[in-house]
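User: Predict the full complex structure for these chains.
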Amino acid sequence: MTTTPPAPAPRWRALTQHHLFWPVAVLVVLLLINVPFTPDFFSVKMTDGHLYGSLVSIVLFGSPLILVAVGMTLVIATGGIDLSVGAVVAITGALTCSYISDQSDQGALAGVFLAMGIGLVAAVVCGLWNGFLVARMGIQPIIATLIIMVAGRGVAQLITDGQIITINSEPYKLIGGGYWLTLPFSIFVVAAVVAVTVALTRKTALGLLVESVGGNAEASRLVGIRSRRIKIMCYVFCALCAGIAGLMISSNTSAADGNNAGLWIELDAILAVVIGGTSLLGGRFSIGGTVVGALVIQTLTTTIYTIGVPTQTNLVFKAAVVIVVCLLQSPKFRAKVFGNRFGPGKGAKGGSGTSTAAPADAAPTTTTAAPKMEVS
Amino acid sequence: MSTTTQTPKATDGRPGTSTTSRAARLLGDRRLPVVVTATLFLVMYIVGLSRYQNYGFGEPQVFLNLFIDNGYLLVAAVGATFVILSGGIDLSVGSVIGFTTMLTAWLVEKQGLPIVVVIPIALGVGAFGGFLMGYVIHNFEIQPFIVTLAGLFLFRGLCLVISKESIAIDDSAVSSMAQAQAQLGVGFLSIGAIVALVVLAAAFYILHYTRFGRRVYAIGGNEQSAMLMGLPQGGTKIAVYTVSGFCSALAGLLFTLYIQSGDPLHATGMELDAIAAVVIGGTLLTGGSGYVLGTLFGVLVLGLIKSIIQFEGTLSSWWTKIATGVLLCAFILIQRAMTARGKT
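Assistant: Here is the predicted structure of the two-chain assembly.
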């Protein structure tokens, strides 16, 4: 699915049709915008054995978002959505920090590992619950995960007793704020998670199974794929990623805030996935696109800071970017604005004649094997 | 925690559907969720009465306060009902409310406009925002979720563009409006509560007795068939989001009256409350089935949870969120039992 179509079209056209073209183009443009304002934007300096620079900090501050977005990609690929990741971030951080703060020696490695384990187990439980509701009970994903989104923050506040728990633990500080081999440690965590995900989904059949479940859950079940189990696995994985992000966020600030940790991260993550070219309808996904999408969002935030736009307009900018990116990805919009070059003919390719049944076909340029079929 | 309490409710429908036809008919009845919500409200009220009678829970004013304290939520939830009935979703509700409080406060306090002029402006801006979102959703076929998400960011951002600090409203006309009370004999209602009830009545009429209302149900039920029937699908969709934007702006005005200030962080996450109220009120999130009266009970149940937690005194505010989540879960499972029945 990641291959460019082997069309006899000119090179440029093949390039623009690659599913990563638009996200990467946006990212490059955003990065270039910074250069006139901060000429040494791309330089990376070495201080105290640590690498510093705008690019490093974009990846550092963006790492929780990348993690959450990668998990979200798989859930969206199954045709679902997970709104509860923000709450899971808060719960994980709250549990871990409250366990560490109860220790007499907050620096003890065993205690920190146990605390992180407890937090991640809680995240997995949340994922299992979501997966159970979606796959077993057949509830719409957006609603099923809304439950934990609403109740989860309450639970997180319950754990922290409505306070912000601060901790002072050196080993725990490493995962979100520490350095290793001159780079922020969280970059390695993100790289490991992304690598494992890509390996699992592209080197084994798992990715194909996920896409087929997202394309048509009933048909894949009839073919012999255990679609329920695949769905539950995706929700658990997504929650686990959110849990790791929760550890990172709480470790970076050395505090757990049940109310504000991971607030709106689910929206940013969904946004990253959409920018990355994964269709919200499910059936195909691109981990690489998601990572680029998350970087776009983080770069946008950084850009707003560096070019000196008042920070309060951050959200307006974000809204504008969302609209532009979504419009660019809408086949109908491109057909209207750019004429028939990116015409609707390609957009309707997988739609089997029901053009209204395939709105927001975010990646019409990829050549997916399975056209979406409408049952019912 | 919620599994143990919810499973009986979800399972007792199933044996009934296969064996007795009465239970099947009951489950198939679309009014069931509304009845369940209304019953739940009554039960909660009676439990509240028996527990806190000595603290004045039985006073009629406590009941009327439910409308006064949740009038804005009711208006917002009515708007969300329209959107959800049509099969869409509107995430921008809370932001539009926040933006309206900010805009109103700014126009009244900093620009010195009289509130009578500000009200139509605020309503117009909200409705126009909704119209734009509906336009993009329909014409460019982008998912409502993403478009209204952009709306959420945009309006919250515009709040901050107006001012980062909250603006208190000292205008005498506004405070006299806020303090106006309509005596009902046993108690009083504020202007906000009355407006909310009027909106509810209007929505009831529109949804059940006008052509537009039928179209909303038809599109939510099955967009494809609605289109094949020749219903003006695009116009209806855009109108639905416009109604939602208008309702959110009106809710914002009521909220401004209620707390008499504009703050960029007002009503953060209120869209979740609105959606929760609609779901608890028995409207199917897939669209096409539900009643606006159910939304009223949904809002009342949420309001009652808050009052009970206040009366209890020892419970902290976050229990509201947990209770809302548990209720959501219960009602979703009931809905699930119903739709499973409808399909077989």
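Confidence is low (pLDDT under 50) at residues 342-376 of chain A.
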